[in-house]
Amino acid sequence: MTAIPVTRSIAIDDGELQETATRAGGPGGQHVNTTDSAVILKFDVANSPNLPDAVKMRLVELAGSRMTREGVLVLRGEGSRSQLLNRQEVRERLIALIRDATFVPKKRRPTKPSKAAKARRVEGKVKRAGVKAGRGRVKVD
C-alpha cells in the first residue's frame, strides 16, 4: 500500500480510500451515456488511524453536507471526460480539504477602542453632521 502525503506529519494509506466509477451527468452525448467516467471517493474520517482527533473534528465542520452521519466523507468528481483525470481531481480535493483542517484558527481576543479612537470617531461624526446640515435650505431674510 502506498501512502498519500498530505502534510509533513500526516499521510493517508491508499487502502483507506474507496473509489467507484459511475456515469457522469451533464452534456457529452453518447460518450457520457456509455462510459463510467465520474468518480465517487469515500474516505472514512471517523475510523482513520492516520488523522489526529483535532483534525477529524475540523474536517467534519469543513465538509458539511459531504460528510455522512457515520463519519464518511464523500466526494464526487465528474468535471472531465477522463476517469483518470476525475480520480486525480477528487484526490486533490480530498488532500486540500484535509490540509485546510490542519490549520488551527487563532482565537479572537476582544479589544476595546481607545479613548483617542472614540474621540476621533465622534469628531468625524460631528464634522459630517455639519456638512449635512449645510445642505439644507438657505433662509432668506
UniProtKB/TrEMBL annotation:
Protein EC: 3.1.1.29
SUPFAM superfamilies in the cross-refs: Release factor
InterPro entries, per the entry: Pep_chain_release_fac_I, Pep_chain_release_fac_I_sf
Record has Transmembrane helix as a keyword: no
Molecular function terms, GO-annotated: peptidyl-tRNA hydrolase activity
Bias (Basic residues): 106-119, 127-141
UniProt-listed Pfam families: RF-1
UniProt keyword list: Hydrolase
Prokaryotic-type class I peptide chain release factors domain mapped to chain residues: 23-39
Region of interest called Disordered, as start-end residue ranges on this chain: 106-141
NCBIfam families referenced in this protein's UniProt entry, alphabetically: PRK09256.1
Family: Belongs to the prokaryotic/mitochondrial release factor family.
PANTHER family: PEPTIDYL-TRNA HYDROLASE ARFB
Entry protein name: Aminoacyl-tRNA hydrolase
Encoding gene, per UniProt annotation: arfB
